[in-house]
Amino acid sequence: MADKRFALSKAPHLRKSDFPKVYGTSVIMRDLCIALVPLILFGWLKNGLYPFIQIDATSFYDCIRPLMMVIIGALSSFLSEFVFFLVAKKDKEFEGLTNYKEKFKYLLRKAFKSYSIIPGLMIAMILPLYTPIWVLIIGCVFGSIVGKMLFGGFGYNIFNPALIGYVFVITAFYGVITKNGGYLNPSEAISVTTGATPLNDFKLVISGAKTLNEIFNVHGSLLNFLIGNTGGSLAETSAILCFISYLFLVLNGVIDWKSPLVYIGTIFVFSYILGAFLGYAGTLNFALFNVLSGGVLFGAVFMVTEPVTSPRDPLAKIFYAMFMALITIMLRFLTDFNEGVATSILFMNMFTPVLDIKCAQLRVQDIMKKKVLGYAAFSLIAVAIVLFTVLSLVGGK
After folding, report:
1. DSSP label at 318?
2. Most CB within 10 Å of its CB: which of 188, 238, 266, 380?
3. What are the C-alpha distances in Å from 273 to residues 43, 52, 216, 262?
4. Phi-psi bin for 372: left (phi > 0), alpha (psi -120 to 50), beta?
5. 254 by DSSP, 3-state: which?
């Protein structure tokens, strides 16, 4: 009976809490921030320092802009939660303090314990380089307040706060961002004459207006995509650094190793299937392009495994990542959403409680017929998404 207990595992970022005398949530979040540092530094080198050295017209402000965005993003989220605690989350302990200095320190502790800088860090990293600072601040405030604090704060939010802020900014201010300079740093703007990112140009491959090789000729080889030397968001383009961060977090017991691999593997297989219908059955480059471009790897490591909004049940984690990957590719191929990662994650966030309950029940189900029917239902949903995407793609050709 021990093997059939109705149990849910710890959420991906909470496994160290099994050892409270040694680890805690603070240590987990510390490791998460450490894993982000190499990507932040690469984003600065690629989008700030390198163009400053190579192009005479680049100013010192442009050089430090990537670092400024990360710092301002983190500070904006922190201040948002600080003010929210001050205005709307007063408790008896706070009201009992009479000294303003003690009240200030108390609010600072609450904001720090809420890990308030994380949403702002993430938003800054996944936004385009030339997002106006005021737009970045609005996105961080919106993500922290609407995506997190209005649900009750850390541990109670339904949706990923960083992605709430990101989607809000991209939806409401995309024209402003594009007019301000968009995704490409000064050196990329010179070499990429179309002014488009790889995913923007990928739409031309789907429509048949360009071949995949033509896209690589503009944006570089697969090696460029591995290194991260391609147009994209501020600090999420390096596949190698995402993989190193993944190993660091897995080896330190911070994230579950299966969810990112299921997400990436499903995207690879589904992309290859769709690529075969477009004439790329003889090469893996089509599938590799979809894995290495955009925010797939960054999302797999840091978003799919987000502690509060991802499932706890081990089986639910697998279905969660698989459906998320299918929706990501469906959006990329059939809609105007070039990226698809953020939208698919937020969509699946809504189904986390349902997946946890149904998958936990499925794992302990004694009647084989009901067990098979349960797995069949999940499989049919996956097959339906695949068939719908394939038939829509073929029908649109």
Report:
1. H
2. 238
3. 32, 42, 20, 16
4. alpha
5. coil
Q: Assess contact for 213 and 286: CB atoms under 8 A.
A: no
Do 8 and 313 form a contact (C-beta atoms < 8 A)? yes
Which two three-digit tokens encode residue 145? 């307040």
Number of domains in the chain: 1
Look at phi and psi of residue 252 and say left if phi exceeds 0, alpha if psi is from -120 to 50, else beta: alpha
Non-local (6+) Cβ contacts of 83 within 8 A are none
| Domain encompassing residue 234 | 2-395
d(CA 232, CA 222): 15
pLDDT one-digit tens code per residue, 325-362:
999 999 999 988 888 899 999 999 999 999 999 999 88
Buried b / exposed e across 16-43, counting CB within 10 Å, b at 16+? beeeeeebebeebbebbeebbebbbbbb
Helix (H, G, I), strand (E, B) or coil at 257: coil
pLDDT tens digits, 175-209: 999 998 888 888 877 776 566 788 888 888 888 88
303: three-class secondary structure by DSSP:
helix
Radius of gyration for the alpha carbons in the chain, expressed in angstroms and rounded = 22
Cα distance between residue 209 and residue 196, in whole Å: 15
State both tokens at 93: 């302990």
Angle at which helix 258-277 crosses helix 368-395, to 10 degrees, equals 40
Chain CA centroid to CA 272, Å = 22
Name all contacts of 171-174 with Cβ < 8 Å and 24+ positions apart.
173/131, 173/132, 173/135, 173/138
Q: How many CA atoms lie within 13 A of 174 on its CB side?
A: 7
